[in-house]
Amino acid sequence: MRPPRCNWNNWRLPMPRLRTISPALFLLICAGCSDGNEITSAPPSAYRGIPAGLMAPCVVQDVPLATTADMVISRGRWKAGFEECAAKIDAIRAHDAIMRSR
How many angstroms separate the CA atoms of 90 and 88, rounded? Predict the structure, then answer.
């Protein structure tokens, strides 16, 4: 006569009992380790990053330089573009300082 084969589907482990005891045991161990005088604080808020509007690239549309007037117009556009980019950089720095101070 051949011995019966082991059927792993019918194999009974004490897992159901351990599942209910483990969390309770864990809580008791953790409660025993703390002295009750500890001060817990909330974790720091996550850095949310810089808004997409501030991260858009600064693009200056230049004009073809054919006359002296075109040079004046071009200089005005470049100056306005650089001022816009400088304002974005200042806004990024201010936003970054506010987010890091939290």
Answer: 5
Here the tokens at position 17 are 């009992």
CB burial class (10 A; 0-12, 13-18, 19+) of residue 38?
exposed
What's the N-to-C CA distance of the chain in angstroms? 76
Per-residue pLDDT of the chain (102 residues; tens, 9 = 90+): 565 555 555 555 555 555 566 666 666 666 656 565 666 665 566 667 788 888 888 888 888 889 999 999 999 999 999 999 999 999 999 998 888 887
Length in residues, the chain: 102
36: left (phi over 0), alpha (psi -120 to 50) or beta: left
Is residue 53 classed as helix, strand or coil in its secondary structure?
helix
- Say whether 67 sits in a helix, a strand or coil: coil
Amino acid in the structure at residue 36: G
Closest to 74 in 3D by CA, of 84, 61, 86, 83: 61
Look at the pTM and tell me if it is higher than 0.90.
no
